[in-house]
Amino acid sequence: MDEKELHIGEHQEQDEQNPVARELHTEEFLVNMGPQHPSTHGVCRLLLTMDGEVIVKVEPYIGYLHRAIEKICENRIYNQITPFMDRFEYVSSMLADWVYALCVERIGQIEVSPRAEYLRVIFGELQRIASHLIYWGVFAMDLGAVTPFLYGLREREMIMDLFEETCGQRLTYNYIRIGGVSQDINPGFEQKCKKFTSYMCQVLEDYETLLNENPIFLSRTKNIGVAPPELSVAYGVSGPSLRASGVNWDIRKDDPYGYYEKFEFEIPQGKNYDTWDRYQARVIEMRESCKIIEQALDGLPEGDPTFKMRASFKLPEGEYYARIESSRGEMGCYIVSKGEKKPYRLKLRGSSFNNLMIIPEISKGLKIADLVAIFASYDIIMPEVDR
Amino acid sequence: MGMVKDFFSGIYNLVVGLFVTGKHLGRHAITLQYPKERWEMPERSRGVVVLLSDPETGELNCTACLLCMKACPTGAIIIDREKNPETKRWFPTKFVIDNTICAFCGLCEESCNFDAIKLTGKYEFSVFDQSELIYDMDRLAELGRDVKYTPRKKPAAKKAAEQKKPPAEGKKPDEKKEDTAEKKPEEKPDKIETNPAEKKEEKAEASDKKTEDQESRKPEEAKQGDLGLDKEEDKKESGN
Amino acid sequence: MQNEQLVSQLVEKFGAQAEKVELNPAQPALVVDKSILVEFLKQIKEDENFKIDYLSCISAVDYLENGMEMNYHLCSIELRYKLTVKVKLDREKPEVPTIREIHPGADWHEREAWELFGIDIKGHPNLKTLLLPEDWKDGWPMRRDWEGNDDFVKMPEF
Amino acid sequence: MGVASKIPVYLEKAPGGGILVTSIDKILNWSRASSLWYMLFGTACCAIEMMCTGASRYDFDRLGMIFRASPRQSDLMFVAGTITHKMASRVKILYEQMAEPRYVIAMGGCAVRGGPFYYDSYAVLKGIDKVIPVDVYIPGCPPRPESLMEGCLKLREKIRKEKMADWSSDSAK
Q1: What is the pLDDT of residue A178?
Q2: CB within 8 Å: B101 and D127
């Protein structure tokens, strides 16, 4: 409240110095952005209180995609829940499958075969690249560039081909199951995957030459939407957005799951905590993901990665909060099991839920165009918010 | 001076840009000209669901065990069944797949032990009327008529039951299948002796029991599946 | 092991107010009384030994006759601790103090708990619908004994 | 509007009017069918597939379909994704803002009839046709880009068969 008043005070002071602005000073008014708006990435409604062109207050209204997945999951047996996890986070459904499988495995003390763990890492990282490619394209498109969108989705289609060959679907894979993966990879997959990663590394250079020196892009991202580390931590921001705020926190390293301890990769960290850093963190992550995939492909052990769970098994009593590093941040799954065939309670934590909460805080005093850039830079995906 | 520099750097940038454009001119376009050309769909592709039938007799492979109905996470499959008084085997009288609520997750295909249901690579089925999307048994069988599939290993119990009848499918059992068949009688000898028709009835009622068959189908998996999760229950139920 | 130490230290420090729950060795949980919840979270955030400053998630669970429960999944960014703080609630009149002052990120999580479970968040300034339609009148849908509204179709048991 | 919209109906009854109306119909339908501008409106999973269809691999522009951000400029609405009760009224508003003749394609199981969220969900609208009229239903979860294109081609067939007289008598009602 204080900040808001402070800000308005400043603004008015400036206005008083400038005679034209004093003439033009207007009453505050409301602008509705969404629920159908191309740059809200889904169905999010932002109610903006504007003072002229300056944002005074942002109030997000969510729930337009609330599909009650938690309620549905309470009424399904454990094996049937994975398809709903795909739809809980459709931009990186592989990782959503993973967090659910991880949670059930930790409660049931189920061992996963090494090959399955490696495959999970490979597909998880491919998914991360695919998700960041959408981010890259859409972020640039929100700032007015169309070419990156076409470029990003072109490369994403290659990943989709790899996925479709292995799991049979383009978007809802249902691949990472409890105790393993649904099917082994086809022969020849490794070569294709290696070819893709080397191609991807080349293309990332193209990407950087395309955007990184563009003066319009720079002026719209640098020093816009600064989120200091304390603020980000307090609001529970996670993932690349948190790392761009200068906090060294990656669940893959700090609370390891799968076989991530075995791989070497670097965690990008921002210095200015602004929109540019958030963008840059993701581009660097794509490169690191390529590295991880290559390492995993080199060390892929033999064996059978599939694991057939009994159709309706009973999970032992217990509860666990599992979390993984999804492409947007911490994705959590909390299951309370009472020793039945169905979970007693299943709670999903989407990273965008918390990432969206900070946007009102850091977009005060900026213009609507900057809000679009900030919103896109946090990579908000609505199903994760609404569930 | 600055203007001149700007001018030349502008020209340079233009030339670089044109060079990049020129490079792309020679490349092959990646666009798919859809109605004229199509991708070859991968074998695992999960499109429209079909019912498979025996290529020789033309009868459906479905034994109305209701496993797919139980495995379906969205409730898209509805089966009614009857018992044939002569052969004492169940057969489906109604098999409906509601494509409007189907999630195309493939769990029905995985749960099926009899190569009866399959997700194919067909993807063109948009309609003007919503009610046309609810496929009945004839439609599903029609769609699955020309679908090629590699028959899976069958559970030993089923195989034993079919030995009395003329072999419906002229497929040679592969090595793994023989392994399973050899192993099976040692593990659960009582199962072979049970009347196959009764067995099927039991199967339909107890889905847990079915999974044992699944496990026995792949011996290495059965080993993995023995986790201690509900182990007692396993024994109890198999003892019935 | 780190986590085990953390819990024993916490129990030592807070004595009878915090009670340890053995659920999963990898994830220690503490039950604290709702009267000291805010103070407890504040102290473990500011204490140099714990520095538990990151709130991952808040999940409410409805145990029917055994009351309700709020689970606060916390962790420390610097020291890598993980901790779950549980608060037992009365089912007839569930209420819990807000922790927005300590963790601003709890805002929407608390609103969600209020909206779907009917847990009254004391001191929350903005308790209004978050996920459900604005004109929702059918009660608390995530409670276990919620019977459904006109539009709710229960999946048939096969 | 009342009289003007009935002109084709009277014209068709007039001697020789049928030939005129038919040829006008053909021209109108041809132009409508080959430049369907769709509204950029996606809610859930299917929106990602819609984006893919618009991008370089599948290239919607080949069919003369370009996305528009505003409902006022578009003829076609893809309802791509789950529509919840909270969103339903907004979809209706968007539909009403579109200029006639307008077409709707329900893309994916959720828009057709609630999809995987049909059972046990208290928030999902069970079929978008309860709110707005739908021309083509495309099942799938989500449909492949080719399925989406096939649906559009079906819609084009439908538009080509339309008669001005039918349309104007509909709107006069």
Answers
A1: 86
A2: no
Domain that holds residue B129: 49-147
Considering the domain boundaries, does residue B23 fall inside one? no
| Helical residues (DSSP H) of chain C, grouped into ranges | 2-14, 37-46, 106-117
Number of domains chain B is built from:
1
Q: List the beta strands (DSSP E) in B52-203.
A: 77-83, 90-98, 117-119, 134-135
Please give the structure tokens belonging to residue A290. 């390529």
Q: What are phi and psi of A319, to 5 degrees?
A: -145, 150
For chain B, what percent of residues have pLDDT higher than 90? 1
Inside any domain, residue C151? no
Is D135 in contact with B128 (Cβ distance < 8 A)? yes
The predicted structure's pLDDT at residue A64: 87
Residue at token pair 């840009």: B17
Q: Label the pairing between strands B134-135 and C18-24.
A: unpaired
Here the ipTM equals 0.78
Q: Domain for residue C158, yes or no?
A: no
Look up the CATH number of the domain holding residue B122.
Answer: 3.30.70.3270
The answer to whether the Cβ–Cβ distance between A357 and C108 falls below 8 Å is yes
B interface toward C at CB cutoff 8 Å? 66, 69-70, 75
Any chains having at least 3 CB pairs less than 8 A from chain A are: B, C, D
Kindly give, in sequence order, each residue whose CB lies less than 8 Å from that of residue A191, ignoring residues fewer than 6 positions away: none
Residues with Cβ within 8 Å of D78's Cβ and at least 6 positions away in sequence, in order, are D38, D39, D41, D42, D46, D50, D105, D107, D148
With CA atoms as reference, report the closest residue to D137 among B124, B77, B33, B136. Answer: B124
pTM strictly above 0.95: no
Number of structural domains (chain C) is 1
Residue C103: inside a domain? yes
Interval D135-153 mean pLDDT: 87
Q: For residue B91, give the 3-state DSSP assignment.
A: strand
The answer to whether residue C49 sits within a structural domain is yes
Do residue D44 and residue A383 have CB atoms under 8 angstroms apart?
A: yes
Q: Min CA distance, B213 vs chain C (Å)?
A: 20
Query: How many angstroms away from the CA of B70 is the closest CA of chain A?
Result: 9
